[in-house]
Amino acid sequence: MNGKGENVKRVIAWAKDNKFLLLISALAIGYVCLPLATHMMHSGEDLGYHLLRIENISEGLKDGQFPVKIGPIFLNGYGYASSLCYPELFLYIPAVLRILGVGIEPSYKVFAFLCIAGSYLTMLYAAYRISGKEKTAASVAAIVYTMSQYHLANLYTRGSLGETQAFVFFPLVIYGLYNLIFEEYERPWVLGIGFWGLMYSHTISLVSALCVAFVLCLIYFKRVVLNGRKFVKLCLTAVIVLMATAAYWLPFLEQLLSLEMRFGQPWTLVSDNAALLPQIFSINFLDYTYNFDIAILLMCLLALVLPKCEENKRQRRTIRWFLIMGFATLWVTSDYFPWKLVQPLLNNIQFPWRFYAIASLFLAVAIGLMAVLKFGGRYRREIMTGVLACMVLSGTLYYEHYKIDYYDIKNDFYTYGENTFNLVQGEWLPKSAEEKYFQPIRDPKTDPEVKEIVIQDRLVRTDDGRELEFSDIRGQGLQFDFEGACRWLDVPLVWYKGYAAWLTDESGKRTPCALDGNGFNGTVRLYPESTVNGGTMTVKYTGTAVQHLALLLNTVTLAVLAVWWMFRRRKEKSSNVSGQ
Does this model's pTM top 0.90? Predict the structure, then answer.
């Protein structure tokens, strides 16, 4: 009790000493959260898909899946491998809230708030370490980063929940790389957690961060690769991260290698989406996909009036590095970067302006360091207040230009099959599949291929024209009575590796049934043996050996890391007590 009491006293004392820091942090986070402060759901280009993902995880957990692999409600019950092909670990937070009875809208908003607050706190930590524990510099960097235009765009215009999560982990990656290159790499866990979080948040953001890391390791080859101690620790960090995320990337690669998906057919070229330099530096707020944050760019002009002396040479060198990295990253988003050359490797990034997040981070750190160097310790409150005011003005102009629409979403919205088709580009559908054939109703008003309303019931269909009804198995597959001979049956489930089928006769004997993905429109096709007399056919997603082993490896790795961390903490406490 005494130890806990002392900890509480320390926290209270710290809060009293940092009242203004806490106030300014609350104001910054609160401003970014303002559009969430309504009983309506805000709009977003991809938000409908992400809400469907959350609802899918919730329903999958209710149906007994853990982890959820095939979405039971996607495509009116046909299923979609969103959970196998997209990282969804953190989406279990709003999904569990849904299971506990919280509505769709508040569940999402709680998670969005956690992401916003998390991005502020990780940036605060990263800048605090980079600046040599300078609280003002850290606060300024966190304010600029969290309130940046691209962050607002991800939240309220694009509705990109994956990149919103990535904003939490980018600061850890950048500080981890800084610690690797310019320090002794005594905190490899920072880089590890950063990449672990990106792996479980957003794959494209992970690729972007890996590109930055790769380039920096090439530039600082001598400091990183030729430094044996650092390089060994870096390799060990990479191996641990891969083991601690195996439950995502191994099953994902297995599906990619076993099934030809739309993912292999690019729907856009990254070189076509690069911005012109005048667009990046425009102040007209014409298009969030091209205009960078004008407030951040204007604050970078502080570099022109920094005091120069021998005492602050190291600080100026650090500022210069972050400015160069920030503007170099902006250059990457432009058409001056040779995107056509790297397009075969990096086309899945799709939009170069995704690098705005990392550019905002680099420049935010530079602005924090410059503000302290220019104005010193005399005007700490004024510095933080001024930067907050600049970002509020920038954000207000942004909100004014991109009017946020709101709509009411009912908690039973996704119980209607027609509302379960928002897949954005549907990258993880089989190449042969088309969403229109999964629709419960095809209407000539929206589908010119039909002349009258067509009802498309979900039925099992045989090669000889029979149509069989079925019953769902708690969202994991289906069952139906089968008798008589046929060459094949098409089952209304989208095919992914991991499905199994068997026939159970009256005596309870199970006979495995061969199956593949050659059914109509990319669905499961069964090939029953000619010798069977009939029984109950079961088709269920049982998973693959790779999935089971990957989950085991992932779980064991995290458990070992947790035990190691607790042992290390106990050892440190014992050392501190003996030292006293």
Answer: yes
* Coil/strand/helix, residue 502: strand
- Model confidence over 104-119: pLDDT tens digits? 999 999 999 999 999 9
Q: What is the pLDDT of residues 127-151, one digit of tens each?
A: 999 999 999 999 999 999 999 999 9
- The span from the CA of 89 to the CA of 200, in Å, is 6
Task: DSSP for 162-173, please give it.
Answer: HHHHHHHHHHHH
Residues 484, 517 contacting (CB under 8 angstroms): no
Q: Indicate whether 522 belongs to any domain.
A: yes
Q: Distance between CA 473 and CA 461 in Å, rounded?
A: 18
Look at residues 402, 431, 450 and tell me which one is the last residue of a structural domain: 402
**Residue numbers of the domain that contains 51:** 2-226+260-402
Q: Do 283 and 161 reside in the same domain of the chain? A: yes
CA distances (Å), origin 444, targets 247, 417, 434, 575: 43, 18, 17, 76
Q: What is the CATH number of the domain that holds 518?
A: 2.60.40
pLDDT digits (tens, 9 = 90+) for 342-400: 988 888 888 999 999 999 999 999 999 999 888 876 788 889 999 999 999 989 888 88
- Domain shared by 386 and 471, yes or no: no
Residue 531's pLDDT is 64
The total domain count for the chain is 2
Residue 288 reports pLDDT greater than 60: no
Is residue 129 in some structural domain?
Answer: yes
Query: Does some domain include residue 125?
Result: yes
Q: Is residue 51 part of a domain?
A: yes
406-407 and 41-42 strand pairing: antiparallel
